[in-house]
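Exam revision sheet. Question 4 asks you to relate a sequence to its structure. Input first:
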Amino acid sequence: MDRPYDLKTLSTRLGSWARGEPSPLAPAVVIADGPDAVRWLSSVSTGIVGNGVLVLARPGRRQQLPSGPGTWVRYDGRIEEPGDEIQIGPEFWLQTTDYISLRYLAIASPTVVRLITADDAAGFLQDVADVRLSGFFEEILLHPAIELGDRCLLSGGPPCTASGLGNRLYAGADGMVRTAPGGIAFGSVGDSRLALEASAAALTARHGDLCGPADVTEALLDAERATLRGHLAALDAVRTLRLRTPTQWRVSGMGFRIADPHQVGELTAPRDDLLLLVSSQEHVLFDARARRAFRISAQLATALDVILHALDPDAALTRLARAGMEDLSRVSTSAVRDALTARGITLPVLLPAAS
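Answer key, C-alpha cells:
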C-alpha cells in the first residue's frame, strides 16, 4: 500500500526541486522512473536515498513501493518533454513546459518551465534584455502556478552536484542518471555512487551545471551572470508582492531608478540580494535571501537606492546630492543601518556615517 502524503509539503518540496537552487540544506528530491530505477535506488548499497529524501517513483504495475529508506511516493505520467504531466494521487498534477511555449499555454495546474532547447535559451536571454530596459515581466511568468525551473543553470551559480549527489537526481526510464530530466547524463542505473560522483565532477568541470542539455548550457555561457541572477531575484520579488497585492510593481534598476528616474543609461545590473520595488502607493525593500518584504518610506527608498548601487562613497554622495539629499543628517547612513538591522537585514555595502 502506498504511503499517505501531505499535499502542502509535497507541493513545497516539488517547488524546491523545480527551482533547482543548490544548497546542502535544500530538501532532497529523487525521481525514479521505471522498475529498474526503483530497485536500484531502494537498495541500501546504492547509498543515495537516505532519511529525509523524497523519492517520486513510477514502478512497474505490480511493483510495490519500497518501505525505506526515504519517503517514497508513487506518480503516474511522464516528466521529460514539453507538455508532459505527472499525477500524484487524485489531487495533484505537475506539468512541464518549455520556455518558448509558455506564453501560449493555458495554466490549469502547477507548471515547471524549463529551457529544453537552444531556442528556449535564446528566448530567455532576450526576455532578460527586454525586462532590463522596460522593467516589466511577461504576465504569464507572474502566475502563482508557474515555476521557472533549473535556477542553478540559469543563474550560473554553484552546480547541483556541488553539494554531492542526492539533493536532485533523476533516474530515467532510459536507464540514464541525470540531475534533472533532459540534463546531461553522467551515469547509468546500477552504477556505484563513487562512479557517479566521479563522472558528475568531470562533466561539471567541462560543461558547468548539468541540469540542462548541452546546447542550452552552451547558449548561456556568454551571458552576464550578475544580470541573470538579478533578473531571477527581481522576478521572485515581483511574484511575491503580486501574491499579496494585485498591483503593478517595478524593480529599481530595471527600466528606471528610484533615486534618479531619468538616468536610465546609468543603470547597473539589479542586485540579487536586496532589491527596491515601487508601486503607485508603496515602496518596498525585498530581501531575496529570505524572500521577505518590508514597507519603507519614499525617502528611505531613495537613500537606499543610492547606497546599494553606488560604486564608491564619493559617487553615492554625489547621487544623494543630485536627489536633493545634501543634508545627510536627514537620512543618515547610520540611521539607515540601524533601522534595517532592527529588521534583521544587514547591508552588504555601507557608506561612512555622515559627519
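Marking note for examiners. The chain has two domains: 7-219, 225-341.
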